[in-house]
Amino acid sequence: MTLGERRATVSLAGIFGLRMLGMFLILPVFALYAKDLTTDHAMIGLALGMYGLTQAVLMIPFGMASDKIGRKPVIIFGLLLFAVGSFMAASATSIEGIILGRAIQGAGAISAAVTALLADLTREEKRTHAMAVIGSTIGLAFAVSLASGPAIYRWIGVPGMFDLTGILSLLAIPVILFVTPNPGKTAFHSDAEANPARLKDVLRNPELLRLNWGIFALHASQMAMFNVVPFALAQDGLQVAEHWKVYLPVVIVSFAFMIPVIIFGERQGKLKQSLVGSVLLMLAAQLLLAASMNFFWGVALALLLFFIAFNVLEASLPSLISKIAPPEAKGTAMGVYNTAQAIGLFTGGVAGGWLAQHVGYYAVFIFCAALMAIWVVLALAMAPPPRVKTQMFHIGAMTAADAERLAGQLAVFTGVEAVTVLHEEGTVMLKVSQTGWDEEGITHLLNRGND
């Protein structure tokens, strides 16, 4: 990567991490805090999930708006919205006020605009690596949130945590203005942005729909269970500020288990087996939570199983989207995927809160187990994902006829599984075998064409 690409990647990854921190930092403590504001657990669940609803509604429109009025103005506007929502939630004295603040937080739905800006600032050949850095940052932010949330709660409480995320959002604005490079030009990138013309194809692809259900179910379960898990940990006298003593070792051990599973799946071509196994593990975790709700060590073990499965699935699903989606619709597929994730956050928060209030805590975990059981059935029926990876190259604009000719030339190289030449964007997108593809020959051909 060039210096400019590194600056863009690190600064934008930080902003992605901030959004996740703002959403997840309160997760391990909010339900216990909110019980002093309301006796209606359904309202607590709505407050947890409301962020996801406005995010789902506005994510893709914000990305499309950034094509027209510029990436940085949209991102700055979203950060301001996020900060306003954070400060409103911090100052709220009622659960309704927090719900409104969370809705405004989610309305700062800048993820699509940030991804588009990263695409503007990175070469096609380096973009996959840059996106992987952002994905890693999101996972790290979630882990840090769970491990540090209870300790931060001891120092500043939930209102202080909301204030902290608002301040961090405001501090991100000068980073966008003065650290993140300005794009030389704003262009549409099929690999990073949603294209309405491709939406129908993505929604009709059964393999992508299975993955969209997966990310929906995963985050619905995550948000639903945190309506109840804090109470399960507190029932034996463990103060909320001490819950980090459970979350920290669970997160560390889960990451240690996650890495070999992902390596096995990728290198051995066993991604389907890894996926199905992880969903089954998630199902087992939910059933164990339902059965051991009143047993501290049973809850702790179930949380360990949950986070092992969660980390594997959270890392694997975007990779599967990339392998399965048509290259020219990858950005659209990821847009639908991210929207399904946000809808899952909202649905899980609302359903978990309602079930906890009207049925019982155990029903929340049965609900999560049902989501996982459906996913198991869908995952077992999925076709084994191809052992391919995406490679992109910039070639400059060309005519449709030249693009068709180049696609034919590229298709004959060893290891090339699919070729897409986007002549208007000046981009070649290849799906190639994970090993053994003729990188040298392809690079030589493309460089000769650019001379």
Strands in their spatial order, largest beta sheet: 1-3-2
CATH architecture of the largest domain: Up-down Bundle
CATH superfamily of the largest domain: MFS general substrate transporter like domains
Q: What's the overall average pLDDT, rounded?
A: 89
- The CATH class designation of the largest domain is Mainly Alpha
Main sheet, how many strands, which sense, barrel?
Answer: 3 strands, antiparallel
User: How is the CATH topology of the largest domain named?
Assistant: Growth Hormone, Chain: A
Content of β-strand: under 5%
Distance between the termini: 22 Å
Q: Summarize this, please?
A:
This protein has helices at residues 3-24, 30-34, 41-69, 71-91, 95-107, 111-121, 124-179, 196-203, 206-225, 229-234, 244-267, 271-291, 296-324, 330-358, 361-380, 400-411, 439-450; strands spanning 388-394, 416-422, 427-433. It has 451 residues and is mainly alpha-helical.
Structural features, described:
With 451 residues, the protein is mostly helical. The protein has three domains: 1-189, MFS general substrate transporter like domains (Growth Hormone, Chain: A), CATH 1.20.1250; 199-385, Up-down Bundle (Growth Hormone, Chain: A); 388-450, Alpha-Beta Plaits, CATH 3.30.70. It has 17 helices and three strands. Helix 9 runs parallel beside helix 14. The longest helix is centred in the middle third of the chain and has 56 residues, at 124-179. It starts with a helix and ends with a helix.
